[in-house]
């Protein structure tokens, strides 16, 4: 009989996934709905409620002690609200309050999706056993999270470690966030594809112009494709090196769709790190691919939930230290 479970929610722009998770990180019951990302706030909340309803009909639900939510950002864990860039109907949406209501007063923990992925990799994945780690999600955007001194470092609003929006190119291209030369502007999947196209890369006959297609061309030696990945790797390396210099991380774990490019990304990334991570205390930094795959969001949300599960009903501890 499972009596110490948590419910996990992973909220993204395309799907809302849920699970009941045990103390070993096993997903015992799953539920999923597409995100009605173009619809109004209540329609999106309806999809969250439907996922929770599906979990609640499981006999295991009675063992759930807390809820963990990993959401596309920005989130504000201190206010319990979310404003995902790709879900325009939700702006300062009081997600924590609504999930508390839907679950009969279970304590709820909210973190950004980058922090959730980091929690998952630290609990059961590539950062396991490391006390100081940076985890990155490189896909449509670039997100991340930090483990410092053996603990997940969320920050007051749950966004700490958001490496995608630190500038590595002072006078670089304008980023949608308002700054210039952000890591994301140089290293996200869409920007890898855009730069390759601008420099003469031609998609194959299937017309696929994604970063994955650029990676396939790079593997065959296409110069514009290789160069675009090298530039992305350089930006990531500069961001990782800066983080390592500030916080003395031991490992940088890289996940997300773009990490699927494998050595096309990792080889130039390790090379560039030698250029930027130069001081004695950062030279030993390890770079590793993420291993938790598509369940990272749910497993990480469950890890976040475990920080509030013992605080009792109606606790709204949303930014535990
Ligand atoms: Zn930015």
UniProtKB/TrEMBL annotation:
Keywords (alphabetical) are: Transferase
The molecule here is called Glucokinase
Task: Check the record and name the Gene3D superfamilies matching this protein.
Answer: 3.30.420.40
Q: To which protein family does this belong?
A: Belongs to the ROK (NagC/XylR) family.
Q: Which SUPFAM superfamilies match?
A: Actin-like ATPase domain (SSF53067)
Q: Which Pfam families match?
A: ROK (PF00480)
**The species this protein was found in:** Streptomyces clavifer
Question: What GO molecular functions are on record for this protein?
Answer: glucokinase activity
Q: What is its EC number?
A: 2.7.1.2
Q: Does rRNA-binding count among this protein's keywords?
A: no
Annotated InterPro entries: ATPase_NBD, ROK, ROK_cs
């Amino acid at each position: 009989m499972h009596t110490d479970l948590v419910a996990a929610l992973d909220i993204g722009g395309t799907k809302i996934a849920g699970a009941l998770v045990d103390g070993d990180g096993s997903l015992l019951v799953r539920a999923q709905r597409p995100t009605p990302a173009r619809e109004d706030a209540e329609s999106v909340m309806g999809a969250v409620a439907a996922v929770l309803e599906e979990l609640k009909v499981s006999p295991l639900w009675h063992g759930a002690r807390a809820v963990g939510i990993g959401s596309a950002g920005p989130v504000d864990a201190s206010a319990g609200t979310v404003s995902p860039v790709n879900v325009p109907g939700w702006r300062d949406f009081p997600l924590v309050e609504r999930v508390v209501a839907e679950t009969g007063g279970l304590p709820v923990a909210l973190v950004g999706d980058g922090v959730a992925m980091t929690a998952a990799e630290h609990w059961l994945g590539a950062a396991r056993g490391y006390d100081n780690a940076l985890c990155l999600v490189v896909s449509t955007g670039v997100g991340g999270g930090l483990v410092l001194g053996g603990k997940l470092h969320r920050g007051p609003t749950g966004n700490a470690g958001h490496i995608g929006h630190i500038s590595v190119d002072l006078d670089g291209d304008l980023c949608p966030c308002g700054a210039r030369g952000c890591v994301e502007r140089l290293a996200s999947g869409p920007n890898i594809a855009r730069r390759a196209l601008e420099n003469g890369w031609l998609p194959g006959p299937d017309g696929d112009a994604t970063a994955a297609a650029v990676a396939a061309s790079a593997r065959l030696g296409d110069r514009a494709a290789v160069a675009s990945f090298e530039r992305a790797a350089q930006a990531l390396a500069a961001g990782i090196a800066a983080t390592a210099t500030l916080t003395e991380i031991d490992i940088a774990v890289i996940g997300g769709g773009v990490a699927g490019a494998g050595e096309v990304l990792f080889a130039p990334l390790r090379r560039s790190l030698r250029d930027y991570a130069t001081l004695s205390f950062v030279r030993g930094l390890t770079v590793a691919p993420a291993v938790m795959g598509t369940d990272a969001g749910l497993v990480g949300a469950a890890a976040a939930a475990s920080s509030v599960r013992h605080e009792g009903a109606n606790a709204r501890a949303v930014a535990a230290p």
